[in-house]
Amino acid sequence: MESDSGNADTARRDISLVLAACAISAGAHAALVPSHIEHDSQLGLAFVVAVGVLLTVGVAVVLSPTARAAQAAALVFAALIASYAAATTVGLPVLSVEPEPVVGVALVTKLVETVGLVFALKLNQTVGGRWSPTRQEVSP
Q1: Distance separating alpha carbons of residues 114 and 59, to the nearest angstrom
Q2: Partners of 131 in the β-ladder
Q3: Of 131 and 55, which is predicted with more confidence?
Q4: Separation CA 103–CA 52 (nearest Å)
Q5: What pairs with residue 68 in β-bridges?
Q6: Contact 114, 77 (CB under 8 A)
Q7: Distance (Å, whole) CA 121 – CA 46
Q8: CA 79 to CA 74: how far, in whole Å?
């Protein structure tokens, strides 16, 4: 079993990885805003909202590394992954009725979000019967 210092180091690493995933995903979504606004203003707005939510959650995980912040990050990553899966298979009602083509940049972004999801969930696991360091409110 890891020492408390080891647990804190692991939590800091996990927080950093969640933050990095938020930042990378936000950057990818921000880069795609102009082309999506050109295609459909509501879809472009959805990308702007995704950027704002990702940045907010990333900051929350760093400034307040609690289970609630980690759960919010996990929820956002899961929602983005699920929405892309829907967008490429059946389309999204109101935003994009026709299925979108699968593109490499999006797949890489979904991979990054999957990594973020895994580490956000990891921050909520128990360690040796104790709550994770994040639940103990360890600062990064």
Answers
A1: 19
A2: 126
A3: 55
A4: 23
A5: none
A6: yes
A7: 25
A8: 9
In the numeric block, the tokens 């909202």 are attached to 49
How confident is the model over 39-54, as pLDDT tens digits?
778 888 888 999 999 9
Whether the CB-CB separation of 121 and 134 falls below 8 Å is answered with no
Could you please report the per-residue DSSP string of 30-81? HHHHHHHHHH-HHHHHHHHHHHHHHHHHHHHHHHS--HHHHHHHHHHHHHHH
Domain ranges of the chain: 4-124
User: What would the DSSP string read from start to end of 96-112?
Assistant: BSSPPPP-HHHHHHHHH
b (16+ CB within 10 A) / e for 84-121: bebbbeeebeebbeeebeeeeebeebbebbebbbebbb
pLDDT at 3 over 50: no
Q: How many angstroms separate the Cα of 98 from the Cα of each of 86, 93, 94, 104?
A: 10, 9, 10, 19
pTM above 0.90, yes or no: no
| Contact assessment for residue 123 and residue 11, using Cβ atoms and an 8 Å cutoff | yes
Query: Is 1 in a helix, a strand, or coil?
Result: coil
How would you classify the pairing of strands 130-131 and 126-127?
antiparallel
